[in-house]
């Protein structure tokens, strides 16, 4: 519901597409809506199977799990792209201002679509996967065979490192170097930068930590505590969408004054 509200609110703004630093974030709202809807269906199905202890639908876990993996891939690349965009805007503001328009967002979208298609090749060709899920399977892990699941863990680890590195650079530039340097301090932080930092926190708190928890303590799994990973991810999406609503609708997030301008006469907003 939060994401529907964000999509509806920002689609009505005439200048929404002109703000290139927010365009990727607007598309991420759409991905979050579909991913949260997918997780809601999965959690409802899990609750139903726990209550009845029967009525497993043939291949249903795969048709829920596979879109979730694909949406997770798209979301990771969007979060990485947003973080990279914010790091460039923060560390090289003049270069970013002069050259940002030379790199069309269509290239980012084409790359993400191509990578999603590559994952289909990995699953169905490289891993030789066939859609024949056992009736007693009701988790994402058993819905996707070991071959692809090993690739997914490798992919997630790399994306966590990349996103974490960008977040550390962004945090250092905004809250450490900016406060330690001599002279005037720029305290103007854009909405896109706040959202990028929030994205990273949500990923590590609600995506990475549950995976780390279950890896360290195998007794914590779907059979003992239920779908902990999916529940944490859904909770993270709810918290993030709620905070983003407040960030985007709060006009006081970015205070800009004349003293915060660069020699090129444009405001330096991180």
TrEMBL record:
Q: Which InterPro entries match?
A: 7TM_GPCR_serpentine_rcpt_Srbc (IPR019420)
Which residue windows are transmembrane per the record? 24-45, 65-84, 105-124, 158-176, 197-216, 228-249
Q: Does the keyword Transcription apply?
A: no
- Protein transport as a keyword of this entry, yes or no, is no
Q: Which UniProt keywords apply?
A: Membrane, Transmembrane, Transmembrane helix
Q: Which Pfam families match?
A: 7TM_GPCR_Srbc
What the entry lists under PANTHER family is as follows:
G-PROTEIN COUPLED RECEPTORS FAMILY 1 PROFILE DOMAIN-CONTAINING PROTEIN-RELATED, SRBC-64-RELATED-RELATED
* Protein name, as recorded: G-protein coupled receptors family 1 profile domain-containing protein
